[in-house]
Write a structure and sequence with these properties.
The protein is mostly helical. Helix content is 55%, strand content 5%. A hairpin with a 5-residue loop joins β1 and β2. The relative contact order is 0.09.
């Protein structure tokens, strides 16, 4: 098979890229933004190789890596991943008799730790929320329900704002959400969150379509971000440190601190790969080491006699 060029007629790159994107959409269920990113990276690589990406030889592919050198590592990793999948598709479809992906750069990516909040920060947020509720304004009950669900259930912002009116019921302390990639997961609803939702629902019309309506649709993610940052400012916490996603991270981190199983946490967060969930172990690694030293069954075993 080797490293030979496969002849491509004019415009063949464009046709094959389009065919690849159709496959991603139909078979892999790729989201619109994902497809747009793949298309941008593939067309850019094709332009750099003068329209012969699909038939590029190893040296030409290495040239792409050289062109990408000034770019951020994350950008290079993304571009390489797009081309790797594209070449894999061509090989599987017998459109190439080799897969030259090994020539693509693989820059090491240091995953940053997710921002989170301490227990003291959470206490301050809920103290500010109590002060809001003391005013008795209807929208204060909405804010309380939003915060209780974010921190108490670990929902994503998009999942939360689009909840139907009857999504949370008193006879079912959980709900089924469809998250990224169409994956369903069970989300427990705490008694506190249930009570907050019930208090907020008293201010809604019975025929409301959404649990958090706004004009003709539901509350927007942007408005949710604004509300959370306003609450943070009222609690004396820099608003840039707090967001719906940070509350989701706090939910995960604090559960792990409390002894939650990593697999259970994966299910609660809706992560497809446990490697995504494992990032949280780095946040509290000292506690986990102490947990092993204190709880492992061999801790009190003196070991075999010398």
């Amino acid at each position: 098979m080797g490293d030979r060029r496969i002849a491509q007629p004019a415009g063949e790159d464009a046709r094959l890229i389009e065919r690849f994107l159709e496959m991603l959409a139909a078979e892999a269920g790729a989201a619109r933004n994902t497809l747009a990113a793949y298309e941008s990276d593939l067309r850019g690589a094709s332009a750099a190789l003068e329209g012969n990406l699909a038939g590029a030889r190893r040296r030409e592919i290495e040239t792409l890596g050289e062109l990408w050198m000034p770019m951020a590592r994350a950008t290079v990793a993304r571009k390489s991943a797009a081309l790797r999948r594209f070449f894999g598709f061509l090989h599987e479809e017998a459109l190439r008799d080799d897969d030259p992906s090994a020539a693509l750069p693989r820059p090491p990516i240091a995953r940053s730790l997710p921002k989170t909040l301490s227990h003291a920060d959470i206490d301050r947020l809920f103290a500010a929320l109590s002060a809001e509720l003391a005013g008795g304004k209807p929208l204060s009950y909405r804010l309380a329900a939003l915060v209780e669900l974010l921190y108490g259930s670990g929902m994503r912002a998009s999942e939360l704002v689009s909840l139907p009116y009857n999504a949370i019921r008193g006879d079912a302390p959980f709900l089924i959400l469809t998250g990224k990639g169409g994956r369903e997961r069970l989300v427990p609803i705490s008694d506190r969150a249930m009570a907050s939702v019930a208090a907020w629902r008293e201010h809604l019309a019975d025929d409301s379509r959404w649990l958090f309506p706004s004009r003709k649709s539901h509350l927007s993610r942007i408005r949710l971000y604004q509300l959370i940052k306003q609450l943070a400012a009222g609690a004396g916490i820099p608003p840039e440190r707090v967001s719906p996603h940070v509350l989701r991270h706090a939910f995960a981190t604090h559960l792990l601190e409390g002894g939650a199983d990593l697999r259970a946490l994966q299910m609660l967060l809706g992560h497809a790969d446990i490697a995504t969930t494992q990032i949280y172990t780095h946040i509290d690694s000292a506690r986990l080491v102490a947990l092993v030293n204190q709880r492992h069954p061999l801790v009190d075993d003196p070991g075999p006699p010398a």
